[in-house]
Design goal:
This protein has two domains: 16-144 and 310-354, D-Maltodextrin-Binding Protein, domain 2 (3-Layer(aba) Sandwich), CATH 3.40.190; 148-307 and 377-422, Periplasmic binding protein-like II (D-Maltodextrin-Binding Protein, domain 2, 3-Layer(aba) Sandwich). The chain has 19 helices and 14 strands. The protein has helices at 3-16, 41-57, 70-82, 96-103, 111-116, 125-132, 154-159, 169-181, 198-208, 211-218, 227-241, 254-262, 274-281, 322-334, 336-346, 362-373, 381-384, 387-402, 407-422; strands at 30-36, 61-67, 89-93, 133-134, 137-138, 141-145, 148-152, 185-188, 266-272, 291-293, 305-307, 310-314, 349-350, 376-378. Residues 1-26 have low confidence and may be disordered.
């Protein structure tokens, strides 16, 4: 191939990936190559602003970014880490996915950054212990976290005569009946990409069997055929059988479910706080057009857990510019403006506890209060178990929403996956 042709192809790839190359002739440019999954508009715009602000303050830095779609990222990142050309840093989900990569020897610890940037003074202790430490060392710098709860339409609820939000399971069932009687689908769920269904499994299990049992199941120390899990499937099936879900959940994605609530076709959706960023972008007003309440209590005496992901930044063991990456990581979590821009744009809770709380809408303030009041912050299913097991579980959830009558077979099949994954 001619040298000119090869150069043309390289330039096309550079611009297609959204990479910015350093200007010829510049000296001592400090590069940082970044891969991340914030590829939709909710992520791209605020992250671009943050990166631009960083480079304005650090004129000797050049950030080369490569955004990849959320689902593709799960596989692509593992391939990149296994190769010889990993990025200098990448976004990742705290929990079992980080543990999986740490155990493979593909991540570099960040204890020196933790001390030099004094991150213990700005990140909540619960977030530090649960999301950042693996095998006794820090391997993730948190960027934000989310709370999964019921996001609902106050107007739809009011029109159905619902004046009190449910806090118990019986009250929740009564709420669903009232919405159904008003001619509205009580619950919207867009499980086309599987993962939105996981919150139902997570909360039903956490509210009945509790956080300790769930942790055992996630680690392969309990079985998907156990009575505790069967009970969850039966409760979930009962909701579907009663017609509480908007039909054909697997035909829609999470934004479709959000639209069904916003349009008054459904009363609520169980989703993460990122839905607020989506709705805000569509002109909805927090507290007026949408609000939030926590997943109700089911069994008395079970510790209260909230569910959600923690997004953070990790450093590959083979990074070419690790020191440069650490400078950027420290900025992303320490700079209050960066944290505020990200939280407001993404519809997230800031990892930095010193962010001005007035940046949050009334709905996000409620979400933060729910997190503070909880006994446990649990990572959602596909971040709480190993990636191979997560695939098996997500497939089960999709099967369930397609036809819940086969739940016993689905659980048995998923247990077979668990036996293979965990070597039971």
């Amino acid at each position: 191939m001619h040298r000119k042709s090869l150069l043309s192809i390289v330039m096309i790839l550079v611009f297609a990936l959204g990479i910015v190359a350093p200007v010829a002739g510049q000296e001592e440019i400090k590069q940082v190559t970044i891969m991340h999954y914030f590829s939709d508009e909710l992520g791209r715009a605020p992250l671009a602003q943050i990166f631009s602000n960083f480079m304005a303050e650090h004129k000797d830095f050049q950030l080369l970014t490569n955004p990849i779609g959320h689902e593709d990222f799960k596989t692509t990142m593992l391939i990149m880490l296994a190769g010889d050309e990993p990025p200098d840093m990448f976004s990742y989900w705290a929990g079992a996915r980080v543990q999986f990569v740490v155990d493979s020897g593909r991540l570099a610890p960040l204890d020196d950054l933790w001390q030099s940037a004094n991150l213990d003074s700005i990140i909540p202790a619960s977030l530090v212990s649960g999301a950042t430490i693996y095998n006794g060392q820090h391997y993730l710098v948190p960027f934000n976290y989310h709370f999964a709860g019921f996001f609902y339409s106050p107007k739809v609820f009011a029109d159905a005569g619902i004046t009190t939000l449910p806090t118990t399971w019986d009250e929740f069932l009564a709420t669903c009946e009232a919405l159904k009687a008003a001619g509205v689908a009580p619950i919207a769920l867009g499980s086309k990409n599987r993962w939105p269904a996981q919150f139902w499994f997570d909360y039903l299990l956490l509210r009945t069997a509790g956080p300790e049992y769930r942790a055992k199941l996630m680690a392969g120390q309990a079985a998907y055929t156990d009575p505790e899990v069967v009970h969850v499937a039966e409760m979930w099936k009962d909701l579907v059988d009663k017609g509480y879900f908007y039909p054909d959940a697997n035909a829609y994605d999470w934004t479709d479910a959000g639209d069904q609530v916003a349009n008054g076709e459904a009363g609520m959706t169980l989703m993460g706080t990122w839905i607020t960023g989506y709705w805000n972008g569509n002109g909805l007003v927090a507290g007026r057009d949408y609000d939030v309440f926590a997943f109700p209590t089911i069994d008395d005496g079970v510790p209260v857990a909230v569910v959600g992901p923690v997004d953070g930044w990790a450093l590959p063991a083979g990074a070419k510019h690790p020191d440069n990456a650490k400078v950027l990581m420290a900025y992303l979590v320490s700079n209050l403006d960066a944290q505020a821009i990200w939280a407001k744009g993404q519809g997230a809770l800031a990892a930095n506890a010193n962010v001005d709380p007035t940046i949050y809408s009334p709905v996000m303030t409620k979400a933060l209060d729910y997190v503070k009041a909880a006994d446990t912050f649990a990572f959602n299913y596909d971040l709480a178990t190993t990636p191979p097991m997560a695939e098996g579980g997500l497939n089960m959830f999709a099967q369930f929403m397609d036809d819940p009558s086969g739940y016993q077979d689905y659980l048995a099949q998923t247990e077979d996956v668990a036996k293979e994954v965990f070597g039971k």
